[in-house]
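Handout, tutorial session.
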Amino acid sequence: MKTTGENYSGESEITMEDVQNLVKKKDEIEEQIKAYYDVLEDQGVGVEEPLIDEEGYPRSDVNLYQIRTARHSISCLQNDHKAIMVEIEEALHKLHAREKAKREQDETEAQGEAMEQQVTLPPPFARVDAVTQGSPACGAGLRVGDEVIEFGSVNTGNFQNLQNIASVVQHSEGKPLRVTVIRDGQKAQMSLTPQRWSGRGLLGCNIVPIHR
């Protein structure tokens, strides 16, 4: 019986379906081996017993052709079984190795992206320490803990004090401002429109400077 070594020993990518097909072939081989052992059992002989009588003549109480055929087939099938077990082991090893390499690559890429973002993000100049429910700031998506790197025309490079932000807010009532923050290490952008609401001020949040 010819095994499938040439299909799985090359550089082609091993899939779980390939492994399942090999296992199916293994099961088929085991069924055939069992069937031939059943033939020997029916004849009352094993794999090694002599087929000649005490006087050296071929035994007449058994079907010699059936027994020889079964023994030869068992020997060939057992070799096939060993070979396919090696193929299954190698296929599983390649499959697991590829999955591990992909997982490590994904982790490396994720770390690289995180490091790249940390390097390119400017340092924040202010932090949001309170956001009132139902306020313009709340509606825009600002959250407590957000670190501000851009508030309208105010950014890390030109920020001096909170009066800068207050001035931008006063001159932008009813106009959307682009606000950029760092949240959980990631950059997040939102549109915040200063406007009258049921609470104090035009934003409904409290921003404190970050001293460096």
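The second record follows below. Compare its token runs with those of the first.
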Amino acid sequence: MMAGAAEDSRALFGAAVRTALEAWPALQIAVENGFGGVHSQEKAEWLGGAVEEYFFRNADLELDEVEDFLGELMTNEFDTVVEDGSLPQVSQQLQTMFHHFQRGDRAALKEMASLITQRKCKVRATALTTARETDEDDDANSVEEMEVAATNDGAATDGVCPQPEPSASDSQMIKEEDIVEDGWTIVRRKK
């Protein structure tokens, strides 16, 4: 490969990595909710460069190594443990992109980045409130649960981005009378 073409391919790989990371709901939630502190957006941008560099320094990576690296970065930089099953998917995308880069297959790299962009979801996370009683001492050790809603910006989906839920009138809502005194919730069948 000529030097100019190699630099172009490397820049294309870097752009594809950033596309994959920007489309990753776990990272979107972490950035939007400031899990990485006041510099969450800057950390997300840095993450793209760090992942790109990781691939160049370790050309023969196994999928579990990529997963471990991404998981470690999310934990260390965003105080986020990714448990939604997306870590293996994103790792596989990144690894496939790198294989395209290594083979010099710019067209496949562009196509893959384009497909990821089409499937990109907008996510919104809201904290769930529970009826259980907590002591003030428990706050330091508590884990906050998040409810995530995703909408698809693109035309194509393959199950990675769920379709929007039906309207509130169609969906089952928990009514105040369904929450009994001891914190239990009565679940009723949909009619």
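Points raised in discussion: The mean pLDDT is 76.
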